[in-house]
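2024-03-11 09:14:02 INFO worker-7 job=invfold-0412 stage=load source=structure_tokens
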């Protein structure tokens, strides 16, 4: 079989604009079929081009593969699109996730759409874990984004997930695909963007009430953090159905084609664990703890990376809260234990127990004092903890929310998306978050979703 692969010059494109794709193959001609991801994949376009060969590059340098331009049709909806590359036209819908011959592209709206939900695809985290060209941000301080990978189409660092071995963890297919498919099956209409769009200051001023992220959104730039904080401060709501969020700071190359992250203290040895070290230049928690925006941090949680883990769910602390409406849960019940909901990584807030035995944030880690811990999961001792030293607070995942003009919700676990299709209580909580936080500020009426699917 003749090899073919590619990558976009930029991971997103506006409706009606031209996207540049870089593709290499020794075949005389090749095909690209574009599919929109959703409740079911939709075939959107087919194009055939003359093939041009090129050699793979290094992980830290633009591969400069042959460029092809494609006009995104003005009637395409915002969404996640997969370009399937082939040297022979295939029949039927092929698997959209693969480690080669795939390109991930996020199509953003050309103008404010009136939709209330904006979903963020974490392409910077995908690129951080991509090992195309022989390296990643786990072996070097800089990677290019102009190489195969970025969610699909490239090799990925990491251990397999025993609960879902069908795709590597740090890819679009693993968490973001099932979450966005669930949204569309439940008629929750959204627009989509990448973290690079938010880095560039796009979309957050376009009338959205709710910004959503899921799974593993680990790498944030200063600009993303600043723009998302401004969105919250202006009354925008945030729902983070993931964990290990905003753990590392990245600097983005001026033209957007590279990421830089300094993880190690000066003079550190090759054996140094940057997660648990001090003096790391790009640790968010050392300079501006992410708790102040998200309410939680991986610093107070932990991870279980290799193999099955003990089943762990969230113990409900206040079943009367609107978050649990329609779930039939009572205070003290546990959500998601049978499905090992908590993990493979989770976030937490430093806490103490009040006179009634309910956990309350101490605020010592930057978590807002009004953060409500609505579900808690103390972590077993065999997990990996970024805070190696003794802490004033037990290590636990803490699901909850707080309000500072806008409301910020965190599910505090990467695997929330995995249980959406099988756990009715997880699904009901998720619907409650969308219903409540996509309303206009001050509204007491249920949200009305755009159902023009």
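2024-03-11 09:14:09 INFO worker-7 stage=emit residues=453
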């Amino acid at each position: 079989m003749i090899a073919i692969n590619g990558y976009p010059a930029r991971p997103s494109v506006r409706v009606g604009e031209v996207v540049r794709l870089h593709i290499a193959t020794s075949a005389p001609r090749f095909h690209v079929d574009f599919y929109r991801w959703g409740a079911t994949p939709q075939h959107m376009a087919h194009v055939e081009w003359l093939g041009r060969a090129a050699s793979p590059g290094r992980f830290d340098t633009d591969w400069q593969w042959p460029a092809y331009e494609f006009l995104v049709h003005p009637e395409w909806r915002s969404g996640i699109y997969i370009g399937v590359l082939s040297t022979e036209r295939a029949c039927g819908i092929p698997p959209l996730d693969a480690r080669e011959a795939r390109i991930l592209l996020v199509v953003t709206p050309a103008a404010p759409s009136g939709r209330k939900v904006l979903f963020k695809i974490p392409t910077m985290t995908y690129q951080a874990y991509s090992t195309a060209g022989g390296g990643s941000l786990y072996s070097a301080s800089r990677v290019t984004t102009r190489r195969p990978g970025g969610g699909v189409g490239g090799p990925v660092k990491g251990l397999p997930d025993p609960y879902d071995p069908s795709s590597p963890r740090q890819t679009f297919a693993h968490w973001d695909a099932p979450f966005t498919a669930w949204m569309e099956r439940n008629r929750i209409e959204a627009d989509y963007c990448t973290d690079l769009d938010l880095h560039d200051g796009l979309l957050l001023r376009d009338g959205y009430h709710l910004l959503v992220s899921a799974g593993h959104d680990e790498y944030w730039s200063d600009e993303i953090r600043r723009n998302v904080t401004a969105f919250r401060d202006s009354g925008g709501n945030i729902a983070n159905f993931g964990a290990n969020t905003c753990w590392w700071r990245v600097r983005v190359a001026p033209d957007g084609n590279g990421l830089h992250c300094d993880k190690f203290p000066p003079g550190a040895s090759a054996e140094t664990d940057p997660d648990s070290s001090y003096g790391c230049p790009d640790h968010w928690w050392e300079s501006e703890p992410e708790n102040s925006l998200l309410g939680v941090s991986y610093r107070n949680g932990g991870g279980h990376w290799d193999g099955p883990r003990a089943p762990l769910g969230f113990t409900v602390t206040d079943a009367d809260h609107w978050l649990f409406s329609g779930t039939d849960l009572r205070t003290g019940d546990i959500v998601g234990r049978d499905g090992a909901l908590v993990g493979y990584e989770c976030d937490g807030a430093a806490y103490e127990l009040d006179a009634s035995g309910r956990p309350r944030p101490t605020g010592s880690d930057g978590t807002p004092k009004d953060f409500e811990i609505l579900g808690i999961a103390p972590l077993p001792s065999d997990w990996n903890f970024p805070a190696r030293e003794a802490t004033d607070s037990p290590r636990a995942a803490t699901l909850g929310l707080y309000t500072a003009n806008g409301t910020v919700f965190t599910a505090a676990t990467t695997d929330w998306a995995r249980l959406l299709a099988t756990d009715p209580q997880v699904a009901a909580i998720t619907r409650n978050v969308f219903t409540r936080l996509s309303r206009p500020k001050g509204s007491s009426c249920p949200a009305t979703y755009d159902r023009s699917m």
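2024-03-11 09:14:09 INFO worker-7 stage=report msg="Residues 4-108 form a domain with the Immunoglobulin-like fold (CATH 2.60.40)."
2024-03-11 09:14:10 INFO worker-7 job finished
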